[in-house]
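check these tokens.
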Amino acid sequence: MTRVAVLKGGPSLEREVSLRSGTNVEMALGRLGHEVIALDADQHLVRSLRDERPEVAFIALHGRGGEDGTVQEILEILRIPYTGSGVLASERAMDKVVSKALFRAAGVPVPHGYAFNKSAFSAMGAADTLPEIQQGLGLPLVVKPARQGSALGISIVKEPGDLGGAILNAMAYDDRVLVERFVPGRELAVSVVMADDPWALPVIEAVTTGRDFYDFEARYTPGETELRAPRDLDDDIIQEAARVSIAAARALGCRGIARVDLILDDEGRLWVLEANTIPGMTDTSLLPKAAEIAGLGFDRVVADMLDLAALDT
């Protein structure tokens, strides 16, 4: 039996999702026979960790504070091993601009795009480049906050006059924004186990109902999305999806279990969109579905994540 602190909640926009993930993890850890300490990641977190003295921390935090290296740094200071990736890999994965550059350098296919921060618009007149962006990338475009999760703040731009508004919307979530060519196709996810010999769980496809993409509501509203293992994909595509997903996680320096989101376009090419160092563990999340299809079950995934817990140094 291990004394495990489950870190959940926190102040991010994904708090409610994190609470759901954390509750599921707590139940699984209890079934596995561990002693569970549920901790909300609030202003008393460090004091609570010192008082409770857990042997390991299971991070079920989503969004800022949980996925960006912040809580990982705290746990490093306190010398408490934790699940998921370390500080640097978490920082890299959380920033879509940084991760995209690392993917490209590692030969991982990514959609072409540009990144801006608020000062480029306010101090350097970057808004005047919008016609060139649209001409170079073509429409439709996807606009994303650089450091936000669960598809919050993402817009699909289909009309020439809508790009500026989409950028302003994204900047409400972060002061850095990524504008990319929108790649239509099938939305796939591959969860990877980054152990000494990395391996991938089954490919999962997210099929949404009447939506342009797999947005926040589609991710967390029961009945809005069907998660399935696509039976019509050729073996070579499945193997390539696993290969590029492991390559993407390796490029960021991930450890433990991560999830990589991809698009399979109409010509059969795969494009990596992002990697998630703390995959969702809710009833509608992709990683639990992959574990179910693989015949592992939710509890086995939680046990594996706990087994891979470590400190960076």
User: Anything to note?
Assistant: The mean pLDDT is 91.
